[in-house]
Amino acid sequence: MERKSVKRLLTVLVTLVLVTSLVMGCSSGSQTQQGQEEHKKIGLVISTLNNPFFVTLRDGAQQKANELGYELIVLDSQNDSSKEYSNVQDILQQGISLLLINPVDSDAVANAVKLANDAKIPVITLDRGANGGEVVTHIASDNVAGGKMAGEYIVQQLNGKGKVVQLEGIPGASSARDRGKGFLEAIEGTEIELVASQPADFDRTKGMTVMQNILQAQPEIDAIFAQNDEMALGAIQAIESAGRQGIMVVGFDAIDDALQAIKDGKMAATVAQQPDRIGSLGVEYADKVLKGEDVPTYVPVDLKLITKDNVDTMD
Amino acid sequence: MEQTKKRDWSAFLRGMQSVIGLLGLCVVLSLLSPRFLRWGNILNVLTQTSLNAVMAIGMTFVILTGGIDLSVGSVLAFSGMITAGMIRSGFNVWIAVIAGLAVGTALGFVNGLSVTKGKVPPFIATLAMMTMARGATLVYSNGQPKSNLGKAFGFLGQGRILSIPVPVIILLLVFIISYYILGQTSTGRYIYATGSNEKAAKLSGIKTDNIKLLVYAISGFTAALTGMVVTSMLDSASPNAGTGAELDAIAAVVLGGTSLSGGQGSVVGTIIGALIIGVLNNGLNLLNVSSYYQQLIKGVVILVAVLIDRRKR
Fold first, then answer.
1. Is A18 inside any structural domain?
2. ipTM for the predicted complex
3. Distance between CA A105 and CA A47 in Å, rounded?
4. Does domain B37-312 have CATH number 1.10.3470?
5. How many domains does chain A have?
């Protein structure tokens, strides 16, 4: 009996060692190199790394951090505000000099920002803002301008007349609100009719199912504006499987799959946010803040309309 | 005499397996990261763990009867949203909290009714509740978060008593009460009896339906309680709160050695299980392990722990 339990204990220990070595292996990339210990650390708590947009944002930040000689610590909130809160708790333990945060939700992030405020760590928000706590600066695309850009393109392509559908992002997310606002501004006063506008939560699968329903209900659709590319690509799937023709799809974000779809002629246009710019500007402004320079409270990042004509310039 | 002593010792070791695992994990992490054992970090781990642990304790009651509750994440979101909504429309904080807890308990009770009176398998009954409660949350909130809930409510998630975070104190209370119910009362014995052999339990006069109603209501209550704490901690009730939380709760129960077929297990194990998950989350963050690997590692740990547990039986 005793020998057996010793054996079991050994199994537990071996497992632990295995897990540990796995951990060591995985974390080795992030360890500071010898002799460069004095690198200042910047924390980045990002809403999700399960979405190419934010992975690109992270990459942009990482590149700038390497360039400017900072160590960047990245934690993933997996689109969960309470995970985000624990991530901020954890990252504050790591001796960071500044916190870059890309919130899951602008409201729910406020208390996490306050944690950093209490620890006297300056905070910069990326892509989504924070409705509470003190933030040094907010770096984001001008989403209203982007929505307007997409709307104006649709108006121009349809010669100011037709039926359009809008696929909305996560209800309440500021990016969804702003893109929708810009889009509506653009089609206002034209003979373009918004026949359906429904949320599909920035998600490809939901984009597809929501679009399937809309296709059932609307016999006549000339164009779709999806507030992000994931939903646009889902909508294209729905349109293809329903065998409908002549529907122009305009997305937002210019992710790789969308650019490919534009090259293939399946999608008309997308509005390019520049997530890598958001990330690199984040670190650039972090550097300015840490050097005591004054920074504006909002740093808008340019957007760009991508169509078949200029899609090859992206990559 | 000698023989029994030896047997006790080995049984003790077996019972302590998850504790040893937890301690081993802590030792390894403190060697790898000097920040792990800081007081501030320990409080962080305890606070982070308390959310999952409270819910997992309720889940333990259900699993002990051989059931499962998949609705806890959605019940968490719904009761949090109800409470936040009531506070926003001017209700007294206490009334709002009690209402939120009552709603959660009622949803749990409905789960119990489907399982007992409706003869719906627990997996299906609570899966339906998971979808309904999430839908109800979205309908009630119109997909928008409800925020700025005031200082008084903030105490539940952010407050401290004698420098111990309130969520940790709530966990302690829930733990003590559950430990007492399961270990010292006839209700506790009936819960184990229902799980290990329902027919025999029925024949010996235990009203197993009532026991089941009770455990699902308890699970609803603890989910709602977690909803209160999360909402207070973030000062915001999000319609997407607690998505996937049921899986963390079940993982904690299983890591703690409670058998999914019912009748065997304890809330002590569940706390240890929740701590293993919490320590792992925190430690991997401190070690700066990519979130992709984090999920992989957590999955491996759960699988290995259950495999070891299997061989034991």
1. no
2. 0.80
3. 9
4. yes
5. 2
